[in-house]
Amino acid sequence: MPADRSAEPLPPEGADPCDADRERFVFGADPVRDRWWGRPLAETRWCLELGRLLADPVWRGVGVPHGDGRPVVLMPGFLAGDQTLGVIAAWLRRLGYRPRFAGFVTNTDCSDRALDRVERTVEELWGSYGRRVALIGHSRGGHFARALAARRPDRVSHAISMGADLQGMFGASTPTLFAVSVARRAVHASGQARRDTCLSAHCGCRFSHDYARLFPFDCVRLTSIYSKGDGVVHWQCQVIPHAECVEVTGSHVGLIFNRKVYRAVAGALAIPELPAATMRDQS
Fold first, then answer.
1. Alpha-carbon distances, residue 238 vs 35, 231, 264 (angstroms)
2. b/e sequence 218-253, b meaning 16+ C-beta within 10 Å
3. What digits encode the pLDDT tens for the residues 98-117?
4. Assign residue 158 a region: left if phi > 0, alpha if psi is -120 to 50, beta otherwise?
5. Residues 130-184: pLDDT tens digits?
């Protein structure tokens, strides 16, 4: 269960209340800085994980709590599109939720632009169903889940991250960081970057600010699902204070097909939502 925050030191008088959390998460309380090549061969396990899921009772909705019609926005990982989450979307629909994609093709866009698109999707769902929305993000999609939940706790009830670095965004393998640098150059070359520092830990855009701000744990349920066998993102960067951190076994890519993850997701979504924040609470 989330820890009691009352023992945390308060920021100095007159300081921005986001500063302490920004330093803690964007740069990491205990960041992993060693070069790491990941486990690319182990990531091929996702095929087996998909097969195990389809043979497991959880795929049929057996042994897990069912949904209550809540809308759920799904966000894929870096270099992945909405289609990679088709399996979990079908499962959520069968469970009784209303899954929705946000229009990702490769998830290599400017983070600020991408989060604005997700926010519009959430606003549309809130207007259609009159209730708060749950967010589920895989890898980079988990960054958006954390950031938008912090930005709009009046519209978001649950934020679930699968395999995302929630401390500093870039606690990943060397090949992955190289791919990010290529994507960064492409975003700038296409003119889609809103800042010169787009797709970096020091961007300073609204997305970066929301990602780093104090998370509204009193309003939104935050769950981080991670695997110590993750071959792409350091698992240590996925464990943060006050969130419900759930350990599973498996690969990074396979988290979207992992039967243990599906059980954790069903359990997290079934937890009653906390009282919604108001816009006055956020000001």
1. 18, 13, 15
2. ebbbbbbbbbebbbbbbbbbbebeebbbbebebbbb
3. 999 999 999 999 999 999 99
4. beta
5. 999 999 999 999 999 999 999 999 999 999 999 999 998 999 999 999 999 999 9
